Amino acid sequence: MKLSFTARLAAVTAVAAGALVSAPGPAQASAIHPDGFPFPSACSSQNSADVRYNAGTEIGSGTAICIADSEYTLAYELVDQSDGNLVIYNEVGQAIWASNTDIHANTLGVMEFDGNFEVVRTTGPEVWSSNTSGHGGAYVCFQRDGNLVVYAPGGNCSGTALWASGT
Question: CATH second-level architecture of 5-164?
Fold first, then answer.
């Protein structure tokens, strides 16, 4: 059984405020990490809908975007880690996709104007790419099903997928 999005948000808020929060029951224990957060990193933002990044948008180093599934429970986290790796985690903290760019440097996830989604060093060139250039107006979505997808222009996190994480 998963905790609801509202229950998890309340627990995270309480922990962040320093409040004492009682431990979840046995059926819920696997969905919450010992520090009170459902994911390896504290959420920078929590969303109950697909998250769309248009051309020119950056996902900064240390950013952790959490998203709820169709049952409105926090289920996936997209993190641009301080080691340079862009990673998607599931609700129990398991990495289910990674850019494999743990280069010990700060990176950014960038949706380029040419349609390419990239992980770039803050002081240098790209270190990973979706290889979708040539599709100006394309955008990337972190979806409620945990999939990270680059879409051709048009639609709103739907339509023709140019690349997907397969999660």
Answer: Orthogonal Prism (2.90)
